[in-house]
TrEMBL record, chain A:
Protein family according to the UniProt entry: Belongs to the YIP1 family.
Species classification: Eukaryota, Metazoa, Chordata, Craniata, Vertebrata
Topology relative to the membrane: Multi-pass membrane protein
One cellular component term from this protein's GO annotations in UniProt: Golgi membrane
Protein name as it appears in the record: Protein YIPF
Transmembrane among keywords: yes
Species name: Cyanoderma ruficeps
Source domain of life: Eukaryota
Swiss-Prot/TrEMBL keywords: Membrane, Transmembrane, Transmembrane helix
Pfam families from the UniProt entry: Yip1 (PF04893)
Automatic annotation (TrEMBL), chain B:
Residue spans of biased composition, Acidic residues class: 49-59
Keyword Membrane: yes
Homology family: Belongs to the YIP1 family.
Subcellular location field: Golgi apparatus membrane; Golgi apparatus, cis-Golgi network membrane
Transmembrane helix keyword on record: yes
Protein name in the entry: Protein YIPF
Segments traversing the membrane: 120-141, 161-185, 197-222, 228-250, 257-280
Region called Disordered, residue ranges: 29-61
Keywords: Membrane, Transmembrane, Transmembrane helix
InterPro entries: Yip1_dom, Yip5/YIPF1/YIPF2
Gene Ontology cellular-component terms listed: Golgi membrane
């Protein structure tokens, strides 16, 4: 139409198209849908149809990968991105169970009970997370809980070592060994969690955020070090 | 025409002085935490009016109300409301701790360091640290006292943590609440120039407890005299911070009520200090007390009679978590 108008006006708007004409209606055919590239192979079937082993192994692999990240703390975002609370739960239950059977001459004077350990770890982690968020941290609530829980792993290993050393007998030598092991694991835990969490804090408040983490792992280390079997 | 002086950031004292000269002027100052404590210390050399202004905070209450209204504008059910209470940097917290440990005579802690920016970080984490320090160092001192005795069986005494936590947090929150209520009530009767908000009082109490942390660590030393000297020393330091904060708030009141208020503040603080010392090296269990008696005093009727006398009065201590029952505390003192 524009070409007709243009030619009618004596001046073509589109000079190259002036001599084009459509003599008859040509039916237009084709596909209007935009093809979406399917980016996952299991688009055909949902995860509901896969074997149970695959489902479990996928989660177990994720948990195992996070344990490896804690053992060699580098600044990786995998721990933060795909948070889960399975690892912290397993570690917390294992630690609380191993702290049982402590010396209890009377109910009042023994070591911490299972519920006390559980509450200290989870309540402590929640309080530290709230503290870091209130100070202006950009990390999400569950990500922080995930990191703090996974970084209890060195201390659980220390508890295992302490129990084995105590099987060999008490005494000054065993106390010194336990002190060194617990001290080293405490430093490892604190450094690992600081490496993951420190980046998300405002720069002039880093010490304010790191100190409660230090106190948290110190209390857990103290519980482990003062454990004496019956 | 604005001179260079007018354009410069007016120091806190200058603003107070200018306002004293012209009381009707309204001022708005933006709180910039830039080396303010250092400047204040240099200004300390001028006695007289600046000191009075500092202590009275003549026009501070207006400024405080204004700034308080500007800060906490979010409704209390949002997260941002609570974030305003944690608006401190590392060096601010360290400055406030330093101000509570080294009280400068004549300087008000609230006016000097809080400056209408009360935070909840300090009180909460200082109380938590104090709880765990008392438990850990008490455990350690118990261990060292009985080191080498063959009948001693080491116990971690974890119950101590719960009792210490309840006591210290109750003190750090309920006493400021009561004091704030009392000051509000007196404010309605007598027009006080200085008034503190609830959070500022919580802040002062929280930071004044900091001195007990190194004291609790030093309580590991087994000498009784050393422990009591340390306790009295730290009580004087933290008590002086509290007195210098609250004396200007009540001194315009009836003389007897003012003195009674300050005396009550000091008495409660002393009770807490004594309670910390008692809880530190006294065990809360009957059985280990029994073991200690048998090991130290030897068998015999005297030892066992002593044990039963001690145990019967230890029960009120176990039940008493609020530390308001002064008679039980004093009785435990008598035993020690």
């Amino acid at each position: 139409m524009a070409a007709a108008e243009g030619s009618g006006a004596g001046e073509t708007l589109f000079p190259g198209l002036a001599d084009m004409s459509i003599s008859q209606d040509i039916p237009v055919e084709g596909e209007i849908t935009v093809p979406v590239g399917s980016n996952s192979p299991d688009e055909d079937y949902s995860t509901l149809d896969e074997p149970v082993k695959d489902t479990i192994m996928r989660d177990l692999k994720a948990v195992g990968k996070k344990f490896v990240h804690v053992m060699y703390p580098r600044k990786s975002s995998a721990l933060l991105r795909d948070w889960d609370l399975w690892g912290p739960l397993v570690l917390c239950v294992a630690l609380a169970l191993m702290l049982q059977g402590g010396s209890a001459d009377s109910k009042d004077d023994g070591g911490p009970q299972f519920a006390e350990v559980f509450v200290i770890i989870w309540f402590g982690a929640v309080v530290i997370t709230l503290n870091s968020k209130l100070l202006g941290g950009t990390i999400s609530f569950f990500q922080s809980l995930c990191v703090l829980g996974y970084c209890v792993m060195p201390l659980t290993v220390a508890m295992l070592v302490c129990r084995l050393v105590l099987l060999a007998g008490g005494g000054t030598v065993s106390f010194i060994i336990r002190l060194i092991v617990v001290g080293a694991m405490f430093a490892w835990s604190t450094l690992a969690s600081t490496a993951f969490l420190a980046d998300s804090q405002p720069p002039n408040r880093k010490a304010l955020v790191v100190y409660p983490i230090f106190l948290f792992y110190f209390v857990i280390s103290w519980m482990i070090l003062t454990f004496t079997p019956q | 025409m604005a001179t260079a002086d007018d354009l410069k950031f007016q120091e806190f004292d200058d603003a107070a002085n200018l306002l004293a000269a012209n009381p009707d002027a309204t001022t708005i100052s933006i709180d910039e935490p830039v080396e303010i404590p250092k400047n204040q210390h240099s200004r300390l050399q001028e006695p007289g009016r600046e000191e009075d202004d500092e202590l009275l905070g003549t026009d501070d209450s207006d400024k405080t109300e204004l700034l308080a209204g500007q800060k906490k504008s979010a409704p209390f059910w949002t997260f941002d409301y609570y974030q305003t209470f944690f608006d401190v940097d590392t060096y601010q917290v360290l400055d406030r701790i330093k101000g509570s440990v080294f009280p400068v005579p004549g300087k008000n802690f609230v006016r000097l360091y809080i400056r209408s920016n009360p935070d909840l970080y300090g009180p909460f984490w200082i109380c938590a640290t104090l709880v765990f320090t008392i438990a850990v160092s008490g455990n350690l001192s118990n261990f060292f006292i009985h080191l080498g005795k063959p009948t001693y069986h080491y116990v971690p005494q974890f119950r101590k943590v719960s009792i210490a936590a309840t006591t210290i947090y109750a003190y750090a929150w309920l006493v400021p609440l009561a004091l704030w209520g009392f000051l509000m009530w007196r404010n309605s009767k007598v027009m006080n120039i200085v008034s503190y908000s609830f959070l500022e009082i919580v802040c002062v109490y929280g930071y004044s407890l900091f001195i007990y942390i190194p004291t609790a660590i030093l309580w590991i030393i087994p000498q009784k005299v050393v422990r009591w000297v340390l306790m009295v020393f730290s009580l004087c330091l933290s008590g002086s911070v509290l007195v210098m904060t609250f004396w200007p708030a009540v001194r315009d009141d009836n003389r007897r009520i003012a003195v009674a208020t300050v005396a009550t503040i000091l008495l409660l603080h002393a009770l807490l200090a004594v309670g910390c010392l008692v809880g530190h090296h006294c065990s809360f269990s009957l059985v280990s007390c029994f073991l200690g008696q048998v090991a130290c005093c030897g068998e015999g009727k005297e030892g066992l009679a002593g044990h039963w006398k001690n145990s019967s009065v230890k029960v009120p201590v176990i039940l008493n978590v609020a530390k308001i029952d002064a008679s039980a505390t004093l009785t435990v003192l008598v035993i020690n």
